[in-house]
Structures are given as C-alpha cells and as structure tokens.
Amino acid sequence: MRNLFVLLALVPCFLTAFGQSIALKKEYPNATFLKEAIPIADGYLVAGYRSRIEKQGNAQMRYYSPFVARLDAKMKTRWEKKFPESKYWPLRSIVAANGGYYVLGDNGFVDHNGAKTARLIKLSPEGRIVFEKLYPYPGMHSGEGVAMVGLPNGDLLARIDLFSRASAVEAPRILRLNARGEKIWDRPLLGDHFKYYPQRFILDHRGRLVLVGVAYRSREDFNRSRSRGWVRVIDPEHPTKIIAERFYDEFKGLEFTDAMELSSGGWWILGNAHDDKYGARRYAVLLELDANGKVIEQRRYEHEHQLALDAFCWNPKRNQLVMVGRMMERRSPPRSAMYTVDQNWDLKRDTIGDPGFYHQVSAFDGGELFVVKQKGLMVME
What we know:
The chain is mainly β. Helix content is 1%, strand content 60%.
C-alpha cells in the first residue's frame, strides 16, 4: 500500500491520469442501467436492464427487461440477448467459461407472493441460450442466485440465498456445478447462530474461498452501530469447515464490501462504517491485513456528505488503486463517486456523476480499467 502513487485531475466527462484517460465509451439511453461487466477476448460482456413504469389504479408498478450484450473492443454492440420482462431484476453474476457465458440470478417473481427460484443460464458466444437450469428448494419461499466464480477445471461455484416468507435470508447455500449446470454438490454456506452476511465471494490463489461482509446478532445491533467487519476463509469442498475467521471492530458499525489479495499473502479490505444510529454519519474505511489477518494499517475516509464505497481494484500498469461508490445527502438521490488513493493513503480527487452510483470496477490484461456505471461503461484508454 505504501508504494501506491496516483493523482487524477478532474476534467469534463473524463479523468486524466499521467496522460491517460478514463472516458465514457458506451452510453446507454435513459431508463437503461448496467449492473455488471466482465472483460472477454476482444471486448466486454455487460448485463443490465431497461425499466418502465406502468400505472395500475393509484399505484405505479415498475417492470424490468433484462439483457446481456456482447461489446467489441470499440464498444460496438455485437449482439444483445433480451430476456422476458419481470417485476424484479433477475440477473446478478456473469462468468465466461467452457466456450460460453454463464449468467446467474433467478426467474423473477412468478406468483402474487413474490416467490422466485434461482436460475442459471448458459449463453453461446453468439448469445443463444444453450440451457437454463432452475434450482428449487421445497419448503423455502424463495431463492436467488447471488454470486458465482469459475474454477480452473471449468466447474462453477454458485451462491444461492434462500428466503423465508418473512423475507429474511434463511439459509445461504453454495453449489458446485459442472459445465452443464448440474449439481456436483449442494451445501450450506454458513452454519452459525450468529448472523453473517457475505458481501463478496472471492477465490484466493490457493483455491480457498474467502468471504467478506458484516456480522451482527440482530438487525437492531446493525442499526445501532454494533456490527463488525467479518472475514472467513473456507475450503469450497467443505464450506462449513472454517479454515480461518476473524472479526474486526476498529470502527463502529463496520461492514466489509470488497477485498483484494496481495502478493505478500496479505489483503486490502474495503468497507463502510457508521456512528450511532444507522445512516446518521456514514464513512468509508480501508484496511491492510497481513497474511494472518492482523490489521497493519487502517484509514477512515470522510466527506462533507455521507460516503459509501462498494468496490475497488488495483491497476498494476498505471500503479493506482481506484475505489467507487456513492455519496449521499439528506433528501437527495445518491451521486456517483470515484476516488483514488496516493502512497500516503490519502484520498485524492473524485468524480461525481449522475444520480445513482458505480456498481463495479476492475482491472484486466493490458492494464485497462473498466467501471460499470448506472448509465454507461467507462474504460481507460
């Protein structure tokens, strides 16, 4: 972390970094929102939805039309796969593997009670549906596919959250799937009386699964700033067997949102915290952990308004750490925020965008950087 050095200067519509720029290369019409993007050969795969509002009596109902699109290196749309309209956003994670693209989510609300079933779709390189798989759980009200990672042999690890009728997460599951989406095994992800919520689902260099998120005994604890940051390392083959686990209370109301493995064996952990009652004062935090999970550096980042950071990445070619999220003011919609950190861990210039916020940031081969925003995709040239 001490070797970081980056300074981005704010200019209209893009950031300048040592002569390089992050430009909005693909802009989408109003009511079109991106949720995720991944780099693939000669371009990108993006997932999003278009929304519309229909008036029903005195109420308004919002409908979503999900899509997955294949973009070339110049952001030109090669193909777009549209899915049936739904009352809910049903696509949440994308993985490129086995000569195609896997999309994880659910089948949308299918009855008046809002019940959903976790669903996996495989698309061909041309965007055709190869197969769809549903993963029902009898006795549970609803299921959502939340996160997914690919394994070196082509298998997938998928996280599915199951819900009771009270809309509380009842039993997070982890599934190992083969290339055809068939279950190799299906096991509980957590097996604890304590309440945990994993925000990220990361595979480390040893093939272990690292969960980062928040721990609290009750919603009241979370609301009253008694939550703790949480890191757990597990063997994906035996997810309830804990290899390592640690809780962090360096800040009140702490929750972790993203993590990055370092070549030293340590980790950078991004998170948010809040003082007193939830929402009274929210700020972002960045921690550096050693290989044993001990905090060796920490920093709190505040803004005149509330600040929450949701994702970050390290771009080795340009030697920079970029963090994205949102700023919030009372009675105002959230605004996009992009920050960079210098070698002294100081927060540098930020970009403030349209209402809404950035969803994802990632670096990939060639040192290019992409940022998924609500209404567009930005790529560093």
